[in-house]
Write a structure and sequence with these properties.
Blueprint (H helix, E strand, L loop, with lengths): L2 H6 L5 E5 L7 H9 L5 E5 L5 H6 L2 E4 L2 E4 L3 H28 L1
Parallel strand pairs: 1-2
Antiparallel strand pairs: 1-3, 3-4
């Protein structure tokens, strides 16, 4: 692969769910994202975020915790985090290309 091909590869966002958090309804959200070919979904038994896990629905998006008061708000927060991350990657790619 040459440099151009490497730059053309789009990295998929990684969304991680904690099976211990499913009591908030995140299982339905995880199943929805599993059908989306534009993201990678990983389920863990525990993400080590017990305090948040007990209180709110949450997921990790590209290694950062995203939480909300409800599953519906979590879905919105995940989409916003993915959009922000994509914009940051695009800006960094442009900066690197300009060098």
């Amino acid at each position: 692969m040459d440099g151009k091909e490497v730059n053309d590869i789009m990295l998929k966002p990684i969304i991680e769910f904690c099976s211990s958090n499913m009591h908030h309804g995140t299982d339905r959200l995880m199943e929805q994202y599993e059908l989306d070919p534009d993201v990678e979904v990983i389920e863990y038994g525990c993400l080590g975020n017990c305090g948040e896990c007990y209180l709110f629905p949450f997921a990790m998006v590209d290694g950062e915790i995203v939480s909300a008061e409800s599953v519906e708000e979590l879905e919105t927060a995940i989409r916003e985090k993915i959009a922000v991350s994509a914009a940051e990657r695009a800006a960094l790619d442009k900066l690197i290309d300009d060098l």
